[in-house]
Amino acid sequence: MRDGQGRVIDYLRLSVTDRCNLRCTYCMPPEGVEWLPHTQILSYEQILRLCRVFAGLGLHRIRLTGGEPLARKDLDQLVAGLKAISGIDHVAVTTNGTLLAEQLPVLRSAGLDTVNISLDTLDRAQFAAITRRDALEDTLTGLEAALAMPGLTVKLNCVPTADNADQWVPLAELARAQTLSVRFIELMPIGMGGGLPGIVEAELRARLEEALGPLHPCEGDPGGGPCRYFRPAGFTGRIGFISAMTHQFCSTCNRVRLTATGFLKTCLQYEKGVELRPLLDAGVGDEVLRAAMVQAIAEKPIQHHFGQGARQQDERHNMNQIGG
Ligand code: SAM
Ligand code: SF4
Question: Which of 16, 111, 160, 165 has the fewest CB atoms lying closer than 10 Å?
Answer without folding.
Answer: 165
